[in-house]
Design a protein that fits this description.
2 domains, two-stranded antiparallel sheet, 13 helices, about 70% helix, transmembrane, MFS_dom, transmembrane helix, Proton-linked_MCT
Length: about 350
């Protein structure tokens, strides 16, 4: 069983530039919007209509009329809700440790709840890819829209640490993975020249969410208690994710996997997989980098409130404010470095920013 897409993304870009060199028009225009999976298909029969009939632009426009900006906004909302809320974990950890499960556990064990949620949100990409092939981007997002708020509602009625771990940690992380997987790749489908900028704008929801959720979470915990705070957050996330689901637009609609049982097909698939760039040394090294980089990036955001209250003796509101300040600088950086990546190259920008952060 091998999944396949209706369009070869990289091959499409190569063909576009070949056509452009030969003064041949690139044939791609919007034909219809498939509401079931949030995808937009392109019709060669419409090649003589629209602003891209001369082949001057690979996606008929990279301006404001590009439907990809809707997917960029959708990614912004998802990163705002998913990761922005996760950045408020430090406030919940302090509340759980001091007021909810005081004397029953320690900071080492309670920290696993928040880290499990983030781990699951980013590590389930492979199975989520197959789910997207079967049901489409929008339906995948719908599942996450239900799971994440439901997880927080269940966490609000939990009375044991293991119940909190299963709801606030495991269930929320799985729901977040549905949302992230359904939206993360979509801006890249629509842009070439402005691809890094579009992704930077979409992922800017992470620091904006940190700015908003950290002080809001602390305020709700202080005024409403942890149960009503979780319920309020669940309602907020449901509204945010519902809007993100409506805005999803995919340029390359997924196609269900094809069942092929023949021996020849098996040998062809085997040869294709052994030549896959996923098995190349540069790609494996890049995966190692992605596994190590979050240790220096995410841990401070998660533990700033706990560090401020337990080590520095500061108030919980000050700890939340520290996360907001760090998120504000992160917000500006995502725009700046997204623009720089389009101009100077993705890897050059990545190496520079990682090196500066390490120093």
């Amino acid at each position: 069983m091998t999944p396949s897409l209706n369009h070869d993304h990289e091959g499409y870009e190569r063909n576009h530039y070949n056509n452009k060199a030969n003064n041949e028009p690139t044939q791609h225009h919007v034909e219809e919007d498939d509401e079931s999976n949030g995808s937009i298909t392109m019709s060669p029969s419409m090649a003589t209509k629209g602003p891209a009939a001369d082949g001057s632009d690979p996606y008929y426009t990279e301006g404001w009329h590009n439907p990809g900006w809707l997917s960029t906004v959708s990614l912004f909302l998802v990163s705002f809700g998913v990761v922005g809320f996760m950045f408020s974990w430090g406030a919940f950890q302090h509340c759980y440790l001091e007021h909810v499960y005081g004397g029953q556990t320690d900071s080492f064990h309670i920290a696993f709840v928040g880290t499990i949620a983030y781990m699951l949100s980013t590590s389930l990409g492979l199975p989520m890819g197959y789910i997207i092939y079967y049901i489409g981007y929008r339906r995948t997002m719908m599942i996450g829209t239900v799971l994440c708020p439901l997880a927080l509602f269940l966490a609000s009625i939990a009375n044991e640490l293991w119940q909190t771990a299963l709801s606030h940690g495991v269930m929320y992380g799985i729901g977040a993975s549905f949302c992230v997987s359904a939206t993360f790749v979509l801006p890249s489908q629509w842009f070439i020249k402005r691809r890094s900028l579009a992704n930077g704008i979409g992922n800017m929801g992470v620091p904006v969410g940190g700015i908003c959720f950290s002080p809001l979470t602390q305020y709700l915990l202080d005024t409403l208690g942890h149960r009503n705070a979780l319920r309020t957050m669940a309602c907020i996330l449901f509204v945010v994710f519902t809007l993100a689901t409506i805005l999803i637009r995919a340029r390359y609609p997924p196609k269900p996997p094809q069942y092929r049982a023949g021996a020849d097909d098996y040998e062809q698939d085997k040869k294709a997989n052994t030549r896959s760039p996923l098995l190349s040394t540069p790609f494996i090294l890049f995966l190692v980098f992605l596994a190590l980089a979050p240790f220096g990036y995410l841990i401070p955001f998660y533990l700033m409130p706990t560090y401020a209250t337990q080590v520095l003796g500061a108030s919980g509101s000050l700890g939340a404010a520290m996360v907001s300040v760090a998120s504000a600088s992160n917000c500006i950086s995502r725009l700046v470095w997204g623009f720089a990546a389009d101009r100077y190259g993705n890897m050059n920008t990545l190496i520079f920013t990682t090196g500066v952060s390490g120093m």
